[in-house]
Amino acid sequence: MHWKQRAAPGQAPAAKRDAGMRRTERQGRREAAVAAGLRELRGRCGPGTPTHQALAEHSGLPIGWLRWAYPSLDEISG
After folding, report:
1. 8 A C-beta contact, residue 45 and residue 14
2. Which of 38, 39, 48, 57 is surrounded by the most beta carbons within 10 Å?
């Protein structure tokens, strides 16, 4: 699942929803993408911690945001 998803059918377009709600939804999608990406990368690469670069390429998340939000990926339980 890519973190940049469109509104679900029957849901108001992003421009009509509250900015706080959009931010919360986007944050939830990003966190889900990080957790899923770490699980998949750890499954492929073994017990070692994946790099920010590998996770960014796999999940489609900006590497700058990943480094800001998660300075140490080994502390995340994916």
Report:
1. no
2. 38
Cα–Cα distance list, 18 to 3, 14, 15, 53 (Å): 19, 8, 8, 32
Q: Is residue 35 part of a domain?
A: yes
**22-75 pLDDT per residue, tens:** 888 888 888 898 989 988 988 887 777 788 999 999 888 999 999 999 998 777
Burial of 38 from C-beta contacts in 10 A (0-12 / 13-18 / 19+)? buried
Domain-embedded: residue 41: yes
Structure tokens at 71: 């300075």
Q: Is the pTM of this model over 0.90?
A: no
Q: How many domains does the chain have?
A: 1
Environment class of 65 (CB within 10 Å of its CB; exposed 0-12, middle 13-18, buried 19+): middle
